[in-house]
Amino acid sequence: MDDTIRQHKYLLTEDQIPTTWYNIIPDLPVPPPPPLHPGTMEPVGPEDLAPLFPMALIEQEVTGERYVDIPGGVLDVYRQWRPTPLFRAHRLEKALGTPARIYYKYEGVSPAGSHKPNTAVPQAYYNAKEGIKKLTTETGAGQWGTALAFACALYDIECEVWQVGASYDAKPYRRLMIEAFGASVHRSPSQLTEAGRTLGADPANQSGSLGIAISEAVEVAATHPEVRYALGSVLNHVLLHQTVIGEEALLQLEMAGDTPTHIVGCTGGGSNFAGLSFPFLREKLAGKISPEIIAAEPASCPSLTRGVYAYDFGDTAGMTPLMKMHTLGHDFVPDPIHAGGLRYHGMAPLISHVYEQGLMTAQAVPQTECFSAAVQFARTEGIVPAPEPTHALALAIREAQRAKETGEETVILTALCGHGHFDLTAYDDYLNGRMVDEDVTEERLAHGLETLPQVPVG
Amino acid sequence: MDDTIRQHKYLLTEDQIPTTWYNIIPDLPVPPPPPLHPGTMEPVGPEDLAPLFPMALIEQEVTGERYVDIPGGVLDVYRQWRPTPLFRAHRLEKALGTPARIYYKYEGVSPAGSHKPNTAVPQAYYNAKEGIKKLTTETGAGQWGTALAFACALYDIECEVWQVGASYDAKPYRRLMIEAFGASVHRSPSQLTEAGRTLGADPANQSGSLGIAISEAVEVAATHPEVRYALGSVLNHVLLHQTVIGEEALLQLEMAGDTPTHIVGCTGGGSNFAGLSFPFLREKLAGKISPEIIAAEPASCPSLTRGVYAYDFGDTAGMTPLMKMHTLGHDFVPDPIHAGGLRYHGMAPLISHVYEQGLMTAQAVPQTECFSAAVQFARTEGIVPAPEPTHALALAIREAQRAKETGEETVILTALCGHGHFDLTAYDDYLNGRMVDEDVTEERLAHGLETLPQVPVG
Fold first, then answer.
1. Structural domain includes residue A404
2. With an 8 Å Cβ cutoff, are B154 and A87 in contact?
3. pLDDT tens string B378-414
4. pTM value?
5. What are the beta bridge partners of residue B362?
6. Are B322 and B365 found together in one domain?
7. Which pLDDT belongs to residue B361?
8. A242, A321, A449, B39: which has the fewest Cβ within 10 Å?
């Protein structure tokens, strides 16, 4: 009996926490296309972003440096939960009967329960350094809102969160957690903003989307000079901050004496995926390793697998710069699946560019397959995953089953980017047969793409 | 700004996980009184306990050995989350403006989110080794039920949980978490047992208690020869398993170069408190350190501070052996406070004995003071505590404030035995002014004590 349940965790010491964030841009064969000002169609400059972000973050957004120093004050906070553990999923492997070796990097040990504090803390830190006293933001699943509320509490910054309606309704505990940290929460779409009000008089009937919630939070920041805005994914500086995940995982796999053949991460805006995979992609571009890097996205919001690569707005109301990315159109409202953190119409421009360069692949997964994987994972590995990373778990299990058939020596690395303590109604739905898979029709896709802004070529 | 938020965690390596559990009994000046068979009033023997527990646990219950070996198979599972971190609460200290140094041992990093897996895993392990395929249990706050469901999933044991009604109603996510791990949950009192049915036809109107839920779970195990029962606190073997907490904390405080002057833990049944404090009490009895050891109990369930030290049943229906302990009477039903894990009429016999020997003290804390401490803790340390350990946090803050007045060099150690992710409605009540402190009247105390069983003296 004893040998059936062994669990290996690979722990680093605190002095192995990365002291720099990794910026992949200088290592890419082709630089990514710049964001454009929607009025002039010219590349945006720092001054265009200054109403929304502190200068330190704007500099990180456009930096060409390969490594960006992590301030000591941020490291002091990271040390509360970093380095995070890497686990070998022995018990899951055994249940699957697979020869594949499955590793998962677990970010749910953070105070907010996900990878989001990796960027929430530096964002709050730089805002505090520049004297900002209030931040606005959106949240989908609630993980980002929780993380920013936590970070703002540390730096004595007021925090106001627009939570996507579907998530606000389904996950009351997320709101309560954000409030416990001292932030305030609004259901989005709200009547507090022009962006929300234009959606009609009865927003409570609308499930909302990340694009709409972003519009609301951006509007408040843009119209109040003393307020700044913080985004939980999509932008270069957010992806940059998350690379601590992959940098640690590189060291931990080395401890395990293993080299990944498959790296699988879930993608909504893309920050968790980039955080895990970009340091490995650096090694791949340097010819040291050759893993297949796979994005797992929800079948109901398939920006990489069924979207177009085009300039589009980051939000629904069209207040952000235009970003070249894989998009379903900024008007696209995904079905209210449980993985609220993945309900974003676009994809991080940097990931979109990497995808276009052929450096990674993507697969879409229906949510019932995700929750089947999640329950099997919970009952073997003992951790109840958030709905978002179950997409990556489902693909990891697909690969592990393929390895069982082919006998190939497969080594899978995935990121378990958060726990599902606030998502248990989703498990209830799944376990009681109430979960459905909704597909995106061609008509809906075509409709979403009709609203793409016209951008002059060249 | 940077130096205001430093966070120190003290981490051990995996080879520093204790390989033995510590049994305090041989180190006590006087042995504790034995449990009695309620029919014969003679000390119970192993055969009396055999219908409920596997023999390995019965042996641990009565062992005179100072150290009990932890099986390799249990250590393999412990390694998933142990050693747990010890944190220095720098940010809380700063907010309090205290010269006291506050340390907290954080057990919320376990898969179930509390200290309970420390004993759930060995209990499931020993039952599985003896071929048991089904366990029953009770749960108050839901932490124990979650932990046992997790452990049973690992060993392929069926698990049936009676959840105290007040907790079942207030914490639906706890039930869902238990179900996600594959166990089944009943609201207690239920109509499934004689113990539940005798409480009347409309148990849904009753808030229940741990004593009632224990009766129900024990009844099912006692009347089904193939089923065993597992208890999450109170008994010697449960306290024994929890000593990994204190053993690790001893090493970690040594790393920190500090010696505690105050050790504060919350007490319901007492397992978390014993787990933290007994290894330190061993050092105190050996004359090496001299901390004050303080139990923090809820004002609404004050077994140590306002109960009597007498033989009483461990459950409401009177199915268990008689145990000499501090009790409010097995009929006492505490107010439905949010700290469901502390709503137990008695106290672990071993802690009661230690208390009678003058080796520790106790204080009762009203729940609004607890939640005031909890919110301050969440907004400084970044962790939202479960309601139970907020009792210890409140006393830690009292001591820290005293140190501020007296200037004494106070070093406080406490156990943050679980996170509050499933208790957020309690925070909602507190933050919105809906939380009240209910006191226990002398009449209610007297009523509870009327039903104490008569035990011949001598």
1. yes
2. no
3. 999 999 999 999 999 999 999 999 999 999 999 999 9
4. 0.95
5. B295
6. yes
7. 98
8. B39
CA distance B329 to chain A (A): 36
Range of the domain at A351: 11-16+82-113+237-448
> At B220, which amino acid appears?
V
Min distance B140 CA to chain A CA atoms (Å): 18
Choose the mutation target among B78, B87, B176 for the interface with A, i.e. most A CBs under 10 Å: B176
CB contact under 8 A, A427 and B128: no
Mean pLDDT across the stretch A59-67? 97
- B366-397 CB burial, b ≥16 within 10 A, e <16: bbbbbbbbbbbbbbbbbbbbbbbbbbbbbbbb
- 3-class DSSP state for residue A389? helix
B40 and B90 housed in the same domain: no
Per residue in A142-159, pLDDT (tens digit) is: 999 999 999 999 999 999
Is A327 a member of any domain?
yes
Low-confidence stretches of chain B (pLDDT beneath 70): 1-7, 201, 203-205, 457-458
Mean pLDDT of the A448-458 span: 84
The reply to whether residue A384 touches residue B180, judged by beta carbons under 8 angstroms, is: yes
**A173 close contact with B: CB closer than 8 A:** yes
CA distances from A385 to A104, A249, A320, A427 (A): 11, 19, 32, 10
Which among B6, B153, B428 has CB closest to A176?
B428
Which 119-138 residues of chain A touch chain B by CB within 8 A? 125, 128-129
* Interface check B111 vs A, CB under 8 A: yes
Give yes or no: residues A312 and A172 share one domain: no
The answer to ipTM > 0.85 is: yes
Interface membership of A42 toward B (CB under 8 Å): no
Q: How many domains does chain B have?
A: 2
Strand partners, A227: A134
- The chain-wide mean pLDDT, for chain A, equals 95
Residues of A in Cβ contact (< 8 Å) with B420: 180
Neighbours of A458 (CB within 10 A): 3
Residue A76, chain B, CB below 8 Å: the answer is: yes
Write out chain B residues lying below 8 Å of A13, CB-based: 11
- Whether B204 has its CB under 8 Å from any CB of chain A: the answer is no
Q: Which of residues 80-109 of B touch A (CB under 8 A)?
A: 80, 87, 91, 109
Q: Is the dihedral of CA B191, B192, B195, B196 positive or negative?
A: negative
Tell me whether the omega of the peptide bond preceding residue A385 falls within 30 degrees of 0, making it cis. no
Cβ contact, residue pair A128, B1, below 8 Å: yes
Inter-chain residue contact A428 with B153, CB threshold 8 Å: no
Q: Is A12 on the interface with B (CB under 8 A)?
A: no
pLDDT in the model for residue B458? 54
Contact yes or no for A176 and B79 at CB 8 A = no
In a domain, A41, yes or no: yes
- pLDDT for residue B457: 67
The answer on B300 and B176 residing in a single domain is: no
**Nearest by Cα to A345 from A390, A393, A386, A297:** A297
> In sequence order, what are the beta bridge partners of B185?
B161
Residues B177, A424: C-beta atoms closer than 8 Å: yes
pLDDT attached to residue B7: 67
How many other C-beta atoms are found inside a 10 Å radius of the C-beta of residue B436?
11
Q: What is the mean pLDDT of chain B?
A: 94
Structure tokens at A409: 């020596």
Is residue A230 within 8 A of residue A148, CB to CB? The reply is: yes
Q: Do A180 and B13 touch (CB under 8 A)?
A: no
pLDDT tens-digit readout, A232-259: 999 999 999 999 999 999 999 999 999 9
Give per-residue pLDDT as tens, A273-324: 999 999 999 999 999 999 999 999 999 999 999 999 999 999 999 999 999 9
Q: Across the interface, do A73 and B428 touch by the CB < 8 Å criterion? A: no
The pLDDT score that the predictor gives to residue A424 is: 95
Contacts of B428 in chain A (CB under 8 A): 176, 179
pLDDT at A303: 97
pLDDT of residue A2: 46
Report pLDDT for B204. 59
Please indicate, yes or no, if residue B76 is contained in any of the structural domains: no
The residue among B218, B235, B252 that closes a domain is B235
